[in-house]
Amino acid sequence: MEINLKDIDLFIEENKDNILRDIGRLVAVPSIEGEPEEGAPFGKEPKKALELGLEIAEELGLGTRNCENYIGYAELPGEDKEKYIATVTHLDVVPVGEGWTKSPFEMWEKDGYIIGRGVMDDKGPSVVCLYALKYLKEKNVPLRYSVRALLGANEETGMGDVQYYLKNYPAPAFAFSPDSDFPVCNGEKGIYQGMIYSKCAPERIVSIEGGMAFNVIPDKATAVLKCEGKLPEETESVKISAKDGLITLNATGKAGHASMPEGKINAIGVLVNYILDNNLCSEAEAEYLSVLKALHSCPYGTGIGVDADDKKFSPLTIVGGIIGIKDGKFFQSLDSRYPTNTSGAQITATINEKFGEHCVCETVAEMEPFYIEPDSPEIQTCINTYNEITGEKAELYTMGGGTYARDFPNAVSFGPEHPERPMSEWVGAVHCVDEGASVEFLLEALKIYIATLIRLQEVEF
Ligand SMILES: [Zn+2]
């Protein structure tokens, strides 16, 4: 079908106020995961947000189905009774934290931005997808494949929503998920979590602590050690205090996400190097810390020999997010994002082979990499439509994060964020304080999604 971009523009102009109103209605539900209850597998609030999302879809004239409060969808029926195309977004949000300019659950507008928890991740994109279906319905676009807008309720904390859906409902022939960056992400690295335990017990090190999550590079780490005599010298990044034969070391670094370690400084690495350089631990402790030194020496795994590069993805990354002492042993967590030419099992095996004398490495969790060949017609439809509407010459990308796309047999992430178009500095990023979205870019995304959904009707699935 011929696409009338002017007509789409007109539709967006007419619906703009209602789109913003409906995003605001969803932002008002604090849909952070809660205690599971009967009929509310992810707690009360995600269920409420899902019900409201489906209510909005019905107001737009769309048929809906609530899939037992795990997930739901709006749908426009197509000729093909089996194959359908889907958009996948989510209505749950992450906790808000302190420091918001106004209430995070009352959306407000300023200088072309909307602000509120979820406006970008992923309530704004959810409403945009519902309005894309509204366009198809209003304009009587002939549909060969049904189009479903899936609304999840548990993306941020485990993706139990799509896992439930794919277990109980037939999978779409193709899905795109507006829950990441434009243009199109056709691959996600494998995600590995592991643990390196010491063989030795603590002797001079009384405590060592740093980090809170596997996937966050910590900017603070602390150790308390037995130390008689002369104190070592402080450095810019390690401060010292002494009391009763004990010294406390406070190391600082630069925090960041484990999948993007470039330019970050792991405070645990700073602390470990300082302890070794100043001979502040026993011999056995030093042998274990030397393994961690090798780990922290390079976020690409070169120091411990697990580096890998398959030329499809960027090279493997590995960071140690949490350090501590438990049950009389030291432990150090591992988070690796790995390409297709290695595996979690291989990472664990390599560490045990090289350092098995001083430590034991164990796999905690693993998700294999996912990669869809870039030349499939559905992926070409997404990227070409994006480039046509934005006038860009953007190319597909791959990343180290994990999105909904990897759970589906044939799916990609497709916008709507634009890291290459900087926002005003007072506007917060997703998961941050004062989370914001550019109204102009969100509406441009709607145009891209409408045109893409129409063109996907011509693809042979
Ligand atoms: Zn999201």
List the helices and strands and how they pair.
Blueprint: H1 5-27, H2 44-59, E1 63-67, E2 71-76, E3 84-90, E4 108-110, E5 113-115, H3 123-138, E6 146-152, H4 160-168, E7 174-177, E8 180-181, E9 184-188, E10 190-198, E11 205-210, E12 216-217, E13 220-226, E14 238-243, E15 246-252, E16 256-257, H5 267-277, H6 283-296, E17 317-319, E18 323-326, E19 329-338, H7 344-355, E20 359-367, E21 370-371, H8 377-390, E22 397-399, E23 411-414, E24 416-417, E25 436-438, H9 439-456
Parallel strand pairs: 3-6, 3-7, 7-23, 8-24, 9-22
Antiparallel strand pairs: 1-2, 2-6, 4-5, 5-25, 9-21, 9-23, 10-19, 10-20, 11-13, 12-16, 13-15, 14-15, 17-19, 18-19
The structure holds zinc ion.
Zinc ion (ZN) binds at residues 90, 121-122, 155, 179.
